[in-house]
Amino acid sequence: MANVVIVGAQWGDEGKGKVVDIYTEHADDVVRFQGGNNAGHTLVVGDETTILHLIPSGILHEGKRCIIGNGVVLDPKVFLEEIDKLKKRGYMKDDRQLVIDGNAHIIMPYHKAIDIAREQKSGARKIGTTGRGIGPTYEDKVARRGIRVMDLIRPDTFARKVREMLPEKNFYLEQYLGGKPLSEDAILDEYNGYARQLEKYVDRASLLLNRSIAAGRNVLFEGAQGTLLDIDHGTYPYVTSSSTVAGGACTGSGVGPTTIDEVIGIVKAYVTRVGEGPFPTELNDEMGEQLRREGSEFGSTTGRPRRTGWFDAVALREAVRISGMTGLAITKMDVLNNLDNIHICTAYAYQGQLLEDFPHDLDILKECKPVYEQMDGWQADLGTATSFETLPAKAQDYLRKIEEVCGCPIVLVSIGPRRDQTIQLKNPFDKQGKIE
Hints:
alpha/beta, Adenylosuccinate Synthetase, Chain A, domain 3, Adenylosuccinate Synthetase, subunit A, domain 2, 13 helices, globular
């Protein structure tokens, strides 16, 4: 029995979906514990590509129970659309495969309207949100004024809460943000329809998960976004609105920290970022364009081109420390196949100082310049490698350097988008680390 947490170790888009899909083979329950449909997990099985925004990636495996925890904010329209698409493709034959915690908060139309209007009003100072209403929903949650799934499926409670909230939201939308007011009747009609379809999926995730753990079942906790977008530990205010670090798995699903056995950080072999905010190793040149092109670096949720840069060991050391990572899964190694030279940022230069720790002061971080160590590229196709030893020597050197500068062992290497293009060095669900 083992309980494993998967988190992004950079600014998101690290390839968590594929790794979760692979580890689901060993899990009984797969849990999404934070974020909303601002996430996009891309899975490639054979020639079929699946993009999921809310439902855990384990849903592609028959017989696995997938749980959306209390820490998630749920857009019911997106959720039901995902279910419909999956069922049309032959997945989710049993509705009992999917559970939503009743304490998860609901994204309302006014949350999305406020999110979009705020970004427009902020102009050059915008955060770079996806406009999905994620932040405003978490705001209402923290202010103890949110609407939860359990409220939505109780028509009288839901109607009362909408009547209480909407006048204030409309006033803010119209008078401050210059938007259009929303109709109470339209919201109630739309969301009551969602409630009737959602009700069969609602249960208490915390109880189910703790019973699973007590029974010796394997649980996989699936995070969204990345460590450097964490609301507390990321590059604030250019962050997401939830706790993306490993500790969020406990608060976002209702299990205790002593139940977690392994924390695997997902790390791209280079770095990308979507939206605004500092990015020390960003490449605004042809090399940056090449990484974007070769890596198909466009957001699976928004389609926005991602900013690209060299591997940043300073940022990764921060992520390893905050989440207590026990292993790293390196993704998109194949994107670097044709490069003569590859750079790793091992420290930052700031006003004559050498910084080895990631600064939390954005004014400092914005002025930091990367200090690089150059390595030879391997200039070979990795796609046929079947083990670490069959990788080109230069690729092995690059991976060993990552382990050295970050102080955390690599447990998996992705050498292509498909499931079978993966090298596993250790199985986190096996206490002896065996690969079966």
